[in-house]
Amino acid sequence: MSISAIDPKTALIVVDLQKGVVAHPCVHPVSVFIQNAAELVAAFHELRLPVVFVTVVGTAPGRTEQALSKGPRLADWAELVPELTPHPGDHHVTKRTWDAFTGTGLETTLKDQGVTQVVIAGIATSIGVESTARVAYALGFNVTLAVDAMSDRNAAAHDNSVSYIFPRLGETGTNREILSILTKRSA
């Protein structure tokens, strides 16, 4: 894990940290990775850097071999977990695919703000987070992945993303490493 820099105009993208998604079993303690994500949100707010909250409300229309749950959902299923404390200026993305960019206008929003780098946190590491990182990288953003501010339902899938996929898409580190660089930069 090694983070070389945080660009002056970096956005934080928080993927699917919503009540209905975090209610499923995860590899890591939910309270820990949510707290790490919340600390990143607070730091980005304090530094007046863009924060993007992504929530999933459906799935892409294509066929898959693995059935996805389509049963009834609680009314608050898509609400962000309360620890994240959104601010009025934050950008909210509602998605129906694995990544935060497809069909959401997020690329335009970030580029219009001059964003050159994204820090990504959320759930699931091997699905929403990895897919968002892949697209961000393909779109030309520098990508940083906060590996202790994410989790997955499957330990092997999480480990594969963190160990083999993420280093090809960007830089990885802990929220403390990211916060340290942000703090030094703002001093």
From TrEMBL:
The lineage of its organism: Bacteria, Pseudomonadati, Acidobacteriota, Terriglobia, Terriglobales. GO terms for molecular function: hydrolase activity. The keyword Hydrolase applies. It comes from the Bacteria. Residues 10-174 form the Isochorismatase-like domain. It holds the Pfam family Isochorismatase. Keywords: Hydrolase. InterPro entries: Isochorismatase-like_dom, Isochorismatase-like_hydrls, Isochorismatase-like_sf. The keyword Hydrolase applies. It comes from Granulicella sibirica. This is Nicotinamidase/isochorismatase family protein.
